[in-house]
Design goal:
12 helices; binds (2R)-2,3-dihydroxypropanoic acid; alpha/beta; globular; Rossmann fold; 2 domains; 12 strands; seven-stranded parallel beta sheet; 327 residues
């Protein structure tokens, strides 16, 4: 047995679908955290003290301090496409491979962004609450009037895989599409008849603005008070990417004052906390970070995270490495 084939120790920070755990167990000793919650820093540190591989979640901050608990740590496999929870620079400096799960959750997350577009535009949740409360007393020409979706302008901030999947769906609704990204993308313009726009222009022109950008120091609070005031009073903001992309306090104010018509959020600035006042607003739909939450997708993510980790511990290039410069 070569040293690469020996049974390594793997620490998994929370229960994930069995398919991934079983893959790991075939080759390595696996410890899954017994707590069904986010671990404290000291619990994380204890968990990785003897581990060669770490499988962690987007809720686990993997800082230099955590990495330094074990100089033998070889790979950090994130069970998410976004990896803003990991200090990748620190990992690279320590020769630790970082991996993620892109692709498998693209359609699932785009579907959820669309669920929010429909829910806020057509007041689906308000209608449900109203009906359950026994307040439906018959068809009313003025009851819960929402906004058309078909034919309205969709603004997509971040035209990567998920942004494009959202655009693909928008074509079925005959929506003109504006998009903003670091640079224009010819293929996107051809495929989705989308038009590149500066952020301000996109915000001014769109009826639905949906965010699909990664969270980086540059994109943090890319939507703040100034940007919200550029939007139409009849427009809606959707965020299924990362909470800190939006200044949540500014969003509460904008919604209270009617600067925009409504919002649909799946992610929050300080998850799982909500900004004061957010949950009291009627013109917002709030979900508990469900972007990739289908059985099929979470299972594929578990398999992908396991495959990344197994490859790294075998001395092979993981299929989805974030910092290939460490190889
Ligand atoms: C991701 O993978 O980044 C998603 O937010 C998980 O739902």
């Amino acid at each position: 047995m070569s040293s690469n084939d020996r049974r390594n120790k793997v620490f998994v920070t929370r229960k994930i679908p069995e398919a991934g755990i079983n893959m790991l167990k075939k080759h390595h000793e696996v410890v899954v955290s017994p707590h069904n919650r986010v671990l404290t820093t000291s619990e994380l540190i204890n968990g990785i003290k003897n581990a060669d591989g770490l499988l962690c979640l987007l809720t686990d901050p993997i800082t230099a301090e955590v990495m330094d608990a074990n100089p033998e740590l070889k790979v950090i496999s994130n069970y998410a496409v976004g990896y803003n929870n990991i200090d990748v620079v620190a990992a690279t400096a320590r020769g630790i491979q970082v991996t993620n799960t892109p692709g498998v959750l693209t359609d699932t997350t785009a579907d959820l962004a669309w669920s929010l577009i429909m829910a806020v535009g057509r007041r689906v949740v308000e209608g449900d609450v109203f009906t359950r409360a026994g307040r439906f007393s018959g068809w009313d020409p003025m009851l819960l009037l929402g906004s058309d979706i078909t034919g309205k302008t969709l603004g997509i901030i971040g035209m990567g895989r998920i942004g494009q999947a959202v655009a693909r769906r928008a074509m079925g609704f005959d929506m003109p599409i504006l998009y903003h990204d670091v640079a224009p993308m010819a293929q996107v313009e051809e495929e989705y008849h989308a038009q590149f726009a500066g952020l301000d222009e996109l915000l001014k022109e769109s009826d639905f603005v949906t965010i699909h950008a990664p969270l980086t120091p540059e994109t943090r609070h890319m939507i703040g008070q100034h940007e919200l005031r550029l939007m139409k009073k009849t427009a809606y903001l959707i965020n299924t990417a990362r909470g800190p992309l939006v200044d949540e306090h500014a969003l509460v104010e904008a919604l209270k004052e009617g600067a925009i018509a409504g919002a649909g959020l799946d992610v929050y600035e300080d998850e799982p906390e909500l900004a004061p006042g957010l949950a009291e607003l009627p013109n917002i739909v709030l979900l508990p970070h469900l972007g990739s939450a289908t059985l099929e997708t979470r299972t594929k993510m578990a398999e992908m995270a396991a495959a990344n980790l197994l490859a790294a511990l075998k001395g092979k290039r993981p299929p989805h490495i974030v910092n290939p410069e460490v190889l």
